[in-house]
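Changelog-adjacent note: as of this version, every example in the card shows the full chain rather than a window. The one below runs 140 residues end to end.
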Amino acid sequence: MTVARTTRLALAWLALTATQIGTWALLAPRSFYDDFPGFGRSWVAGDGPFNEHLVRDVGALNLALAVLLIAAAVRLSRELVTVAAIASLAWGVPHTVYHLANTEPLGTMDNVASIGGLVFSVALAAMLLVSANKLDTSTR
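Full-length structure tokens:
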């Protein structure tokens, strides 16, 4: 698989995740708070009282990140992929660190799934930062 294809797939995965979270949190904040990630699980509600403004802001910010990730996947320029990777890390690293330090609200399996997903997203963003330097204008 080429660097360009791998980079596009990683950007698409991060964009899809941000779009799903962003849309749900923005359009149905109470449901997001009570029911995220779905499938009978609840990862947000155990971490403090509901705040509609905060949940909607998280949704909107995830959608803004998704726009950047999609633009990077379409354009596939070294600069835009680098900015998208750094933006993903700026969101993902503190979020992951918080959850690593605050495991009490969730059970073991939910912590494994939650933190595993967060670490995976951070690893993808770090990989994007490295792969951006390998992008060649002829690979677009």
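Structural remarks: The chain has a mean pLDDT of 95.
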